[in-house]
Structures are given as structure tokens and as C-alpha cells.
Write a structure and sequence with these properties.
The chain is of the alpha/beta class. It contains 11 helices and 9 strands. A 5-stranded parallel sheet has the order 7-6-5-8-9, with helices on both faces. The chain has a 4-stranded parallel sheet with strand order 2-1-3-4, with helices on both faces.
């Protein structure tokens, strides 16, 4: 298979296992590129990409921007906080104004779930969802699965536990979809108040005890507690959360086996993981960051190939 089955990357839910494998194979090639002395390729020289961030983001935005520049695309950055959105302009108007500048692709982060899907039906450009509310964050899930594949050679059959704030996490949902499509077994672990009611419908087991979860898994993906999405308190204190669901080096070393520790960032050091875990050889957090650029290059390249193919 040499091209994606979709014209947009709106969520892992909408792509196939073949799509994921194609993205991974393409990312392998780009990973080699970004480790060369000359890190740029002219692949997207004729493509203009708009980065639309209606919500704050540092890592994802920088990662996409770097990926776009490595591919030699023309890049337009747009931040909603300093734009006409503040004056009441609608999403479609904003995007159409940007598209009238002859933009081919839009990378968008938006606080509303489904914003990317809505946009893809109304504008003539390829949309990449860089996170929509607490719904999906497909490129994060792709880079997470890709990092597991790199570390453990395959994702199929691996046991992965996602720990922490599952309820507010778009990373958790996208990761569950991606890992299951690739044949991994997934559990979630966290305070009952932060586990969504529908989770069993996704074919995911809930483990309430962190030590049991870690003894079971090959990989633990530690999520940040998303205080900014909480209107109420979901657990008594941060200290209590850390005692029950935080990973420290003592806990890691006391397990029956060596597990891989991941984190999508930004890390609340001392809350979900301690510094000595984040900086240990079992953590692949910096590999995830590097792989994020390669995965995003692959996604942009493959979607741009569809644009060029559709135009021919």
C-alpha cells in the first residue's frame, strides 16, 4: 500500500492498521533524514501549511512546525489568542480567510471535540487534527505506538497500561484506538473519578491498583493530570494522587521485570513520575519527542501526496 486511505488525519478511529503501518514505514525514512547533517528534504516545497492553534500548545506546535520546515513546506502560524476569533469570527470564516491565501493543509488544535471533522466537511484543504478537546490527538498516539515498536520491535501482543487522568485525555483515547489496531492489549489505571464510564465499551480493562498494573504491563504510559480541564476536584490532594498513582524509582526497581516508561509531556515532575524515573534508562520520553517530528513529517508527506495525486 503506497497511499493513505483517508484525505485527512482527524482521529485514529478513522484510519486503518495499514494506514498506521504506512505512516510508520514513512517515518522510518524521515527519522534517518533528521539524523543527517543536512536535515531538510524538498518533499513539500510547493505545499503551504497553516498551523491553527485555538488552544495553547508548545510541544505539539513546535513539533509540527519543525516537521513542516524539514519538508521545505511554506508555513503560516496562527494563534487564536491574538486573532479575530477574539472578535467573534467563526471557525469556518477564520479558516476560509486563511485558505483564500492558497493554503493546502491545516494543522488544527481546538478546544471543541469534533472541530476537525466539522472543518473537513466545509473547507477544501487537508486537515490534520492536532488535538480536539478531550477527544483525540492522533499524531501523539502514532508517535507513542511508533516509540513502542522502536523499543520492543513490535506492538502486537504487548501489554500497555495507560495511567492517570483518562477522563480528560485525548491522548488516552487515541492511544487506545492505535494500540488495539496494532494488536496490543490495553488496560487503564487511575482514580475511579478519572476513568470514563464508557471505557469498558472500548474493550479496555480497568486496574485500580498501580503496582498490579505495572507488574502486568510491558509499557506504562503515564499521563499528566489535566487540572486546566477540571471544573471540580476529582481527588482529594495532589499528594494523595501521587502516593496512589505516581511512579518513583523505588517502585520501578521493586517490580518483577523491567518495564518501559512513557509520558506524552509536559511532565509534572514529582506528581505522575519522579525525576529519577523521567531521566532513567527505562524512560523513552525523549525518544518520543524525536519520533514526534518523524511521525508528523510522515503524516504531512503522505497527506500532501494525496493532494498532489488528486490534482493530477
Amino acid at each position: 500500500m503506497s497511499e493513505l486511505s483517508v484525505n485527512h488525519l482527524l482521529g485514529i478511529k478513522y484510519i486503518t492498521e495499514d494506514d498506521i503501518q504506512l505512516i510508520f514505514e514513512t517515518a522510518d525514512h524521515f527519522k534517518e533524514v533528521i539524523n543527517r547533517s543536512i536535515k531538510k528534504v524538498p518533499s513539500l516545497r510547493d505545499i503551504t501549511i497553516a498551523n491553527l492553534f485555538f488552544e495553547n500548545s508548545t510541544r505539539t506546535r513546535l513539533s509540527f512546525e519543525l516537521a513542516e520546515k524539514r519538508l521545505s513546506a511554506d508555513v503560516v502560524n496562527f494563534s487564536a489568542s491574538s486573532s479575530s476569533v477574539k472578535k467573534g469570527e467563526t471557525l469556518i470564516d477564520t479558516v476560509n480567510n486563511i485558505l483564500s491565501m492558497k493554503v493546502d493543509m491545516v494543522v488544527m488544535r481546538h478546544p471543541n471535540p469534533g472541530a476537525g471533522v466539522f472543518l473537513s466537511k466545509h473547507v477544501n484543504a487537508s486537515i490534520v487534527n492536532a488535538g480536539d478537546g478531550a477527544h483525540e490527538h492522533p499524531t501523539q498516539a502514532l508517535l507513542d505506538s511508533y516509540s513502542i515498536r522502536e523499543k520492543l520491535e513490535d506492538v502486537a501482543g504487548k501489554k500497555v497500561v495507560i495511567v492517570g487522568d483518562i477522563l480528560h485525555s485525548r491522548v488516552a483515547l487515541s492511544n487506545i484506538f492505535a494500540l488495539q489496531k496494532l494488536g496490543a492489549i490495553v488496560k487503564v489505571c487511575g482514580p475511579k473519578t478519572l476513568i470514563p464510564k464508557y471505557i469498558d465499551r472500548l474493550g479496555v480493562e480497568v486496574e485500580g491498583n498501580l503496582r498490579n498494573a505495572l507488574n502486568w504491563c510491558d509499557v506504562a504510559n503515564m499521563l499528566r493530570v489535566q487540572n486546566e480541564r477540571m471544573e471540580i476536584s476529582y481527588f482529594p490532594t495532589t499528594r494523595e494522587y501521587t502516593q496512589q498513582f505516581g511512579v518513583n524509582k523505588g517502585l520501578l526497581d521493586s517490580l518483577d521485570k523491567e518495564i518501559v516508561v512513557m509520558h506524552p509531556g509536559p511532565i509534572n515532575r514529582g506528581v505522575e513520575i519522579t525525576s529519577d524515573v523521567a531521566d532513567s534508562k527505562q524512560a523513552i520520553i525523549l525518544n518520543q519527542v524525536e519520533n514526534g517530528v518523524a511521525i508528523r513529517m510522515a503524516v504531512l508527506y503522505l497527506l500532501a501526496s494525496k493532494i498532489q495525486h488528486n490534482e493530477d
